[in-house]
Write a structure and sequence with these properties.
The protein has 136 residues and is an alpha/beta fold. The chain contains five helices and five strands, in the order βαβαβαβαβα.
Length: 136
C-alpha cells in the first residue's frame, strides 16, 4: 500500500505519515504540485492525498490535472483525497472531482477512515470481487 501526500506544509505531511505507519504501508511525499503527476507515474500509489496548499499549484488544480491526464492515459488512475482549508472549499473540491474531502485540522483516525471509504468505493467500482489493498 503506497500513499502519496502532496503538501508544502511539513505538519500535514507529518500527520499523514503518522496516520499510515503500519507494516506494508509507505508514504511518498512531494511539496510541489507539478511533481505529483510524475510521481504518480513513477510510484503508482494506491491513494493520492492533496493539500489545498501545494507549492506552485493548488490541490484543486492538481486533482483536475490528474483526472485529465488519466483520461488521456498519461498517468494511472488513482483515487484522490483532498484536504481543504475550510468548509467553504467544498465547492472547489466538487469541481476537482475529489473522491473524498476532509477539512483541516486533521486527526489520524479521521484520515484513515476517509482513506478506507475512498479505497473501498474505488475498489468495488473497479473489481467485481471487491478485494483491494488493506488499510490499517
Amino acid at each position: 500500500m503506497k500513499i502519496l501526500i502532496a503538501s508544502e506544509a511539513e505538519w500535514i505531511r507529518n500527520q499523514v505519515r503518522g496516520a499510515f505507519v503500519a507494516p506494508g504501508q509507505g508514504v511518498i511525499e512531494v511539496t510541489r504540485g507539478r511533481d505529483v503527476g510524475a510521481t504518480v507515474t513513477a510510484e503508482n500509489p494506491d491513494l493520492v492525498i492533496l493539500d489545498m496548499q501545494i507549492g506552485n499549484m493548488g490541490g484543486v488544480a492538481v486533482a483536475i490535472e490528474l483526472h485529465l491526464d488519466a483520461e488521456e492515459g498519461r498517468v494511472p488512475e488513482v483515487p484522490i483525497l483532498l484536504l481543504l482549508d475550510r468548509e467553504a472549499d467544498r465547492f472547489l473540491a466538487k469541481r476537482a472531482a475529489a473522491g473524498e474531502v476532509l477539512v483541516k485540522p486533521l486527526d489520524a483516525g479521521t484520515l484513515r477512515r476517509a482513506a478506507r471509504r475512498l479505497l473501498a468505493t474505488t475498489t468495488l467500482a473497479a473489481t467485481p470481487s471487491g478485494a483491494g489493498p488493506a488499510l490499517r
